[in-house]
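Box S1 | Example of a co-folding query
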Amino acid sequence: MKSKAHFKSHPLHPILISFPIAFFIGTLISHAGGLYLDNEEWLTTATWLNAAGIIGAVLAAVPGFIDYLYTVPPRSSAKKRASLHGLLNTSMLVLFVLLFYYRRQAMPSQLFLLTGELIGVVIMTIAGWMGGTLVHRNQIGIDMRYANAGKWQEAYFSPDSSTLEVADTSDLKVNAMMLLHINGKRIVLARTEEGYAAFDDHCTHRGGSLAGGSLICETVQCPWHGSQFSVKTGEVTAGPANMGITTYPVTEKNGKLWLKL
Ligand code: FES
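Box S1 (continued) | Returned holo structure for FE2/S2 (inorganic) cluster
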């Protein structure tokens, strides 16, 4: 599922999170080192790293939130994971903002500060682990290029009627798919060896995006756990899914493809 906040297919969120991770861990290390060595400069560095971490976290959150809204498949296990990931990171950020203001008091408790930093780093580590799962298992932000699939294609429509023109016949090569957003509904338009097909972009197992899967011999395979569905009938041809997907009729007319909802 290609990221919506990317630079030349490289998602921005995983790039930017390196900064707050380094700065907040640096805050803890610098603070602990400053206390151990009784070194005022290390303590000042901790304050600056705390501030830099806050700025870095806010910058990293922007593309992360865009991907949360528009890249993570709705009603999926990944959406739940991404919600918790965001909640944990927001809590961690609020904690470091509070610590930043607290450490500027005349006589802040160093033990309180250190404990807060440690808790913040632990929360960040758990959230980071979940972020890794979102990328490496749920493939959020991955620009997949299966054989013959071509580049990721997406189109948006707000039709008044239930029948609409969605693409030119030349837009899709054989075994290529395109994700359509129609009045908020996600539908995959696919071209098979036998013609064109359309179906819901929602694997009935745990909500994986079928548009991000692979298509071959009129069968689409979910990228998350490998469930397979016939794109003509919507039937499950291989589990773990045990419920079929909804399909929609597609007709071809004068080089245009028409979808009926
Ligand atoms: S979400 Fe598990 S196979 Fe599709």
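Residues 40-70 form the longest helix (31 residues). Residues 6-136 form one domain.
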